[in-house]
Amino acid sequence: xxxxxxxxxxxxxxxxxxxxxxxxxxxxxxxxxxxxxxxxxxxxxxxxxxxxxxxxxxxxxxxxxxxxxxxxxxxxxxxxxxxxxxxxxxxxxxxxxxxxxxxxxxxxxxxxxxxxxxxxxxxxxxxxxxxxxxxxxxxxxxxxxxxxxxxxxxxxxxxxxxxxxxxxxxxxxxxxxxxxxxxxxxxxxxxxxxxxxxxxxxxxxxxxxxxxxxxxxxxxxxxxxxxxxxxxxxxxxxxxxxxxxxxxxxxxxxxxxxxxxxxxxxxxxxxxxxxxxxxxx
Length: 281
Fold this sequence. Notes:
Elements: H1 3-11, H2 20-23, E1 24-28, E2 33-35, E3 43-44, H3 47-52, H4 61-71, H5 80-88, H6 94-100, H7 102-105, H8 108-112, E4 124-128, H9 146-155, H10 167-172, H11 185-198, E5 203-207, H12 215-227, E6 235-240, H13 246-261, E7 267-273
Parallel strand pairs: 1-4, 4-5, 5-6, 6-7
Antiparallel strand pairs: 1-2, 2-3
């Protein structure tokens, strides 16, 4: 379908309709935050919701209310980036491009014929299990690297225009990351949901922190290795700095070779390598 055809199809439901609210998600499990797109700010996942329904890592009450607005022809305020594009230019906004993805548009009828209250397994998932990282890159922050947390706790934050590295403000907003050795109810909910989620996935992307320092990354790879027949068409992507201890790297390479060489995933060619210089004071 062309972009115009997709837009017409979406607008047939409502001028604010975007399939990304259903079909994709980024989950920051170390802080308990979630969002369906990089434009709206992440919102907190209520613990009471995931205790009842682990898929509330994606299907939060907050997000379902935004879906309701879309199905009723309204434009959710948090999606203003796309409305600004559409109201001030002839360009297609990201709601069209994100909905155009084959794994998204194929779910159009299922989504539009269901209630806004219905839980939906996303097709594209990006997950961060932990902020544990061995680097403290200047473009990052304490939500995404434990080394930044250690640095700030020892020396204090340095000033930035947005105060993004203020630990006190993270605590005030209830966004302070769990430490890797702490029990994390969001990670526990993920593993409760994972067997059901896995079978519907098109793309699964692991980010961090540094994913190769998280035991949950290897748990995912081992699960796929042992249960690949439930979803042999999965596309797997991993963000990594590739600077972890040799034993972990060897374990990672062995698992990846098994998945790739034995066709246990559709593709494993998306190793997104971040190379940056460590920050030191």
